[in-house]
Amino acid sequence: MKIIHLLYADSGGGHNAVYRVHQALLKKKIDSQMWVINSKLDDNTIKQPLNVFQMKVIKFFLFFAKNFIVRLMKTKNLEIHSVSFFSSSFLKKINNSDADVVNLHWIQGEMLSIKDISKIKKPIVWTLHDMWAFCGAEHYTEDNRWQEGYNFNNRPSYEGGFDLNRWTWKRKRKYWKKEFQIVTPSKWLASCVSKSALMKDWPVSVIPNPIDADLWKPMDKYTAKKKLNLPSNVPLILFGAMGGGRNLRKGFDLLLQSLKKLKNNSKQNKITI
Fold first, then answer.
1. Domain residue spans in the chain?
2. How many C-beta atoms lie closer than 10 Å to residue 172's C-beta?
3. In CATH, what number does 2-206 get?
4. pLDDT tens track, the chain, 273 positions
5. Whole-number Å distance between alpha carbons of 49 and 41
6. Which pTM does this prediction carry?
7. Buried (b) or exposed (e) across 237-257, using 16+ Cβ within 10 A?
8. Cα first-last separation, the chain
């Protein structure tokens, strides 16, 4: 079996999780490749199948989408918005390939248009790394339009101008008539898929992101703390997120509030933040 993983880049954020999936498949002697636009890894199983001109066209369309189309809408949702409107050369490359399965991942950045996705002739598995697939243009949102459908009367009060999210969602509903197999790394995201107006009847499976168990192994806590010069006589909490605490969606502010509350309520008052 030959699998092509399609994603914008091979490193950073969710892209690192895709690379671990790719490496795990290779270890199982499965013919796996990653097709990307931006590549930083020295790995001959990662391909940039488009030529320089084709990639420049995609990056021009991305620039135009971000600086002109997206700005037609005014919103307080500061998360990334993707319209995926412009067609690219990736569609022809995919359909002409000998892949048995195409595994879509983070394919925004005008890498494939919404219409292009509907024209892929290969069996598709789509691994979601955010909410974009069943939302409008937004990658994350706290409103419920993705559950109700993007109507005229349910637009949030913090948005104005052109209804970019409704326009993008309607294009998805128009072109995605055939269901894809959806994979999510968390139960929460799978539940969102099942509740969404767009994908509620689509098949969805939860497959957690893998790690290399030969590299990452449990070890004695005392030994680990000693190696890292950490105190061994107190409980420790580790918080990790791309961007640290700058992105409120990651919840670091909630962790700080909780720890401060525990510290204030603790009789011994030995919590260090």
1. 2-206, 221-265
2. 21
3. 3.40.50
4. 999 999 999 887 788 999 999 999 999 999 999 999 999 999 999 999 999 999 999 999 999 999 999 999 999 999 999 999 999 999 999 999 999 999 999 999 999 999 999 999 999 999 999 999 999 999 999 999 999 999 999 999 999 999 999 999 999 999 999 999 999 999 999 999 999 999 999 999 999 999 888 888 888 888 888 888 998 888 888 888 777 777 777 888 888 888 888 877 766 556 565
5. 15
6. 0.88
7. eeeeeeeeeeeeebebeeeee
8. 50
Tell me, what amino acid is at 38?
N
DSSP string computed for 157-223: TTEEES-HHHHHHHHHHHH--S--EEEESSHHHHHHHHH-TTTTTS-EEE-PPP--TTTS----HHH
Length of the chain equals 273
